[in-house]
Structures are given as structure tokens and as C-alpha cells.
Design brief:
The chain is α/β, with parallel strands linked by helices. It has helices spanning 18-32, 76-79, 82-107, 119-124, 143-147, 151-158, 170-178, 218-228, 246-256, 271-276, 292-299, 311-316, 331-343, 345-358, 364-379; strands spanning 5-10, 36-41, 58-61, 113-116, 134-138, 164-167, 184-186, 205-209, 236-240, 262-266, 280-283, 304-307, 323-326. Keywords: Glycosyltransferase, Transferase.
């Protein structure tokens, strides 16, 4: 195996998020295989999270300060105020320092690969000289999500010039190919842990994993859980993650009469152990690409109930075999699906066994092998 110089680049690589965790997982895996790896964040995180206790890769952050909130002048005078002009000049100087720092890091090697973690990072990279390196662009969300933001145009503008554009599912890659993106390919995100244990599925706990923010639509999950447990009050709901909607969700649980059975667990370092506490994992988001919570739960034998949100979700949850998919936004159907799994121990066991087998190709060594094959293809 050729030992390579690998740069993994993201806008913010240290916040508690799925795409950030993927970058750290890949960086560690590549480094443990003998590659020279540097994980580069353009901006520092306002709330940094330590993903690994002993990273084997180099870590660099280009800016000294987190991104500032978006600002718009309400008047012409405000736009030209001395304070605003000084702030804009300081921001330009900081941006140039960051780009010069990255250019020096790239220039320190003769060849290598740059894995670009988002289309925004690809846009920022345009002003940096790195023509002696080869680029791979990642996108961690679905094609549908790209269409609802600026990401679609950024991908179509910047990714064709790269060696490869990597998406998480074949349906998403196919949609980008239809938009004449010539270099689209598929590589799934790896599991961040080796699934050595297995959930017992007898704890009477439903779990959800993710930030407590609007896009996760945990209000729907509370409603569905309340309906599903009307006849099964011994069940609990455990929410793993922090976020701005915690108090609002607590109030909703109180209104629904389930506050005593809803547990807000916050951020948890050992998510493998947390999944093993659960009997069902639920996902009620507004939109998702290929959510790692479904893959991680499945790897530990926990069946999932999810809205049918994307090709990536359908690849992770095989309806009627490893879990249950319901129409997006249909809280009543979601409650019925939860209730069915809650009431049937044998069904949970059957789905959990099938789920564990289904996601076994997502273990880190297998995914790293696919990355190595991609590097070899690019070199040819």
C-alpha cells in the first residue's frame, strides 16, 4: 500500500456533529494505516468537542476565531461606520492569513490528496494554490437537501474540477450525474466504533440521537411516543444530544403528560454503550442524507423506525426487514410503527439481527479499503 500525504479539510471540524465525527474517524483510520494525515479546520468551533483521546493525525485550525454571526447594515451610514470598516478590514486580513497558512501546509509536500468535507470548504479553497495535489469533494447530505440550499450550485460549480465527487448513496450520486456532474461516485461514511457488543432489546427504551434543534423535529417524536405508549406506559424515551430546543421539548413532554418518562441525556462520549441501552431507535427529522444514528444503532442490533427521507435512509433501513419506514411527517403512522415494535419482542429481535448484518460493510476497515481503491483509481 502506498503511503500518502492526506489532507482532510472542513469549515469547522470540531463541533459535535455527524460530518465532523466522520472526518475524525477517517483521519484516525488513515493515520493508523501509515498515511501522513492532517485534519484541517478552516474555523475553530465555538463549542469544540474532543472526538478522540489520542489522535494519530495532525490537527490544524486556520482562523484564530469562530465565524461571526451574519451581519447586515440597516443604513448606508452604518455600512460606512469606522467601526464596521475596521471589522471588515480585520476579517479580510484574517482570511488572507488563513489562506497563506494553508498554502504553506500544502507546499510542504510534493504530492498528495485533499479530501474536501463540504462544498463551502471547496469554495473557500479556490483562492489557495494547490495544483500539485489531487482533490476529492465530499457531500454528507442528500441531493434533496442540496436542492434546498446553496449547496447544489456550489457542488455543480466547484466539484467538476476535482478528481472525484463523493456522495453517500447511489440514488444521490445518480441525481448529481443527471445534473451533468461527471465524476460522481459513492462512498458510505464509516461506523465510528467497532460494534463488539449487542443490545439486549429488553430495556423498554426508545432512543433518538442528534442535536436538539428544529430540523430534527423531536416534537413529532414526543407526539408519536405519547400516542404509542398510551397502552404501554412502562416504556421510556431517551434523547441524546444538546441544543437550543431543550426547554421547549421539556415543556411539550409536560403538556403531553409524559415528562416523567422522557430523559434528556445530553452529549455522551460512549455512544456504543448508549445504543446498547436501547430497544428501538427513532428518527423523525425534517430531512436527512444518510444519518449515522441509524447505521450505528443497526450495528449494535437495535431496530430503527424512521421517516422515509432519502435514498440514504432507505439504504440503511430495509423496510420490513431491519426496521420500519413511514411516510415523512406522518406522526400517526410513526406512532403505529413504534407501538408495533414495542409490543413485539420477537420482531425487535428479528429486525435487530438483520440490521446488524446489513450494516457490517460500514465497519471502518471495509470503508477504508474502498477509499484506498479510490486513491488507486485516481492515481491511474
Amino acid at each position: 500500500m502506498k503511503r500518502r500525504n492526506l489532507f482532510l479539510l472542513g469549515i469547522d471540524v470540531d463541533s459535535m456533529g455527524g460530518s465532523q465525527r466522520v472526518l475524525h474517524t477517517l483521519a484516525q483510520g488513515f493515520a493508523e494505516r501509515g498515511h501522513r494525515v492532517e485534519l484541517i479546520g478552516i474555523r475553530p468551533s465555538p463549542e469544540p468537542h474532543a472526538f478522540l483521546d489520542a489522535p494519530a493525525y495532525r490537527r490544524t485550525t486556520l482562523y484564530r476565531t469562530p465565524a461571526r454571526p451574519a451581519w447586515r447594515a440597516v443604513s448606508f451610514a452604518e455600512r460606512l461606520s469606522p467601526e464596521r470598516l475596521r471589522a471588515a478590514r480585520a476579517e479580510r486580513q484574517e482570511r488572507e492569513r488563513a489562506r497563506e497558512r494553508l498554502a504553506r501546509r500544502f507546499a510542504a509536500v510534493r504530492d498528495g490528496m485533499v479530501v474536501i468535507g463540504s462544498p463551502w470548504a471547496a469554495a473557500w479553497l479556490q483562492a489557495v494554490e494547490w495544483s500539485h495535489l489531487k482533490g476529492i469533494g465530499q457531500y454528507h447530505e442528500s441531493f434533496h437537501q442540496a436542492c434546498t440550499s446553496e449547496n447544489l450550485q456550489l457542488i455543480l460549480r466547484h466539484y467538476p474540477a476535482l478528481e472525484k465527487a463523493v456522495f453517500l448513496s447511489e440514488p444521490d450520486a445518480a441525481e448529481f450525474r443527471r445534473r451533468r456532474l461527471p465524476n460522481a461516485t459513492v462512498l458510505p461514511n464509516p461506523l465510528p466504533f467497532a460494534p463488539t457488543g449487542r443490545a439486549s432489546l429488553d430495556t423498554r427504551r426508545v432512543g433518538a440521537v442528534g442535536r436538539l434543534e428544529a430540523v430534527k423535529r423531536l416534537d413529532r417524536l414526543l407526539d408519536a411516543f405519547a400516542a404509542a405508549t398510551a397502552a404501554q406506559p412502562e416504556w421510556e424515551l431517551h434523547l441524546f444530544g444538546d441544543g437550543p430546543l431543550e426547554q421547549e421539548l421539556r415543556a411539550r413532554a409536560e403538556t403531553l403528560g409524559i415528562a416523567g418518562r422522557v430523559h434528556f441525556r445530553g452529549s455522551v462520549r460512549d455512544m456504543a454503550a448508549a445504543y446498547c441501552e436501547l430497544s428501538v431507535v427513532a428518527l423523525t427529522s425534517e430531512r436527512e442524507g444518510r444519518p449515522m444514528a441509524l447505521a450505528e444503532a443497526s450495528a449494535l442490533g437495535v431496530p430503527c423506525v424512521s421517516f422515509d427521507l432519502s435514498g440514504g435512509v432507505r439504504e440503511l433501513v430495509r423496510h420490513g426487514r431491519t426496521g420500519t419506514l413511514v411516510p415523512p411527517g406522518d406522526t400517526g403512522a410513526f406512532a403505529d410503527a413504534l407501538g408495533e415494535l414495542m409490543a413485539d419482542d420477537a420482531l425487535r429481535e428479528r429486525y435487530g439481527c438483520a440490521a446488524r448484518e446489513h450494516v457490517s460493510p460500514l465497519q471502518l476497515p471495509a470503508v477504508l479499503d474502498r477509499w484506498e481503491a479510490l486513491f488507486e483509481e485516481i492515481d491511474r
